[in-house]
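Pipeline run #58 for the internal structure catalog. This entry was flagged by the ingest filter as a single-chain record with no existing model, so it goes straight to prediction. Upstream metadata was stripped on purpose; only the residue string is passed forward. Reviewer on rotation: M.T. Logging verbosity set to normal.
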Amino acid sequence: MSNNLLKGKRGIIFGALDSNSIAWITAERIFEEGGIFVLTNAPVAMRMGQINELAEKTKSTVIPADATSTDDLENLITKSMEILGGKLDFVLHSIGMSINVRKGKAYTDQNYDWTHKGLDVSAMSFHRVMQSLYKNDAMNEWGSIVALSYIAAQRVFPDYNDMADNKAFLESVARSFGYFFGKDKKVRVNTISQSPTPTTAGKGVKGFDGFIKYADKMSPLGNATAVDCANYTIALFSDLTKRVTLQNLYNDGGFSNMGVSDSIMDTIENS
C-alpha cells in the first residue's frame, strides 16, 4: 500500500545485492512510495548479485561505485544529481563486510589487514559518503541519511566478530557527522539497529540461525523483518520525522530492552 510519503524525493541506495537484501526491499518500497533513486554497489558485488533486475523493476539507474573510493563517490554523487534532476533528499547506506568472518578467523586471532579492510568497507565508507555529500552540497534541506546497524555494536555476540566493532564505529560516525550535517545543512543522520535478518551477508555469520531463533524468542513482538526495516527507513526518509537525528533507532521487536523472556526461560528449564 502506498501513501506517497516520498513523492518527489530523490536519493541514492547503497548495497542492494539480491532480493534478500534489506536495501533491495527498501528500494522496492521507496519506489512504491513515489521516490526516485540511483542504485549503487561495488563492481565486485554487482557481479555477484542481480541489481539490474531491481533497476528495471524500479525504473532506476545503476552506477557502480566502490564506497571506499573518494573518486568513485564524487562521480556517483555528481551523476546521480544529473540523472535525478537536482539535489538529494535521502541516502541509504546498507554496506557491511568482514573478511575475518568470511574466512572463519576468530576475534582473538584477527588478520589485521582483513580487519582494516572490513572497517573501511563497513564503517569508514559511511564517513566517506557523508563527506562527499557534504562537500558537494548534494543534500536538500531536511534530507535524511540512514545507515543499517546491529545491536552487537553495544552488546557481546561472540560470533559476530569484528563486525561488532565496525557497527560501533558506524554509529559513532552517524552521531559525529550528523551534528555537522544538521547544524550546517539541516540534514538528518540516523542508524537503524535491525533484528538479525536472513540476508546474504547475515547468513555468513557463524551460528546465524541460532541468532535468529534466540532473538525471536527474546523479543515480545518477534523479530523485525526486512520489510519492517524498509518501512521504518521510509518513515525516516519522509517529512514525518524532520527533527529526528543523531539517533540509533532499534527496530527489533523489543529485543534491545529485554533481560530474559518466558520463552527463553522455558527453553532453559526444559533442556
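catalog note: The longest strand covers residues 139-149.
catalog note: The chain has a mean pLDDT of 94.
status: ready for reviewer M.T.
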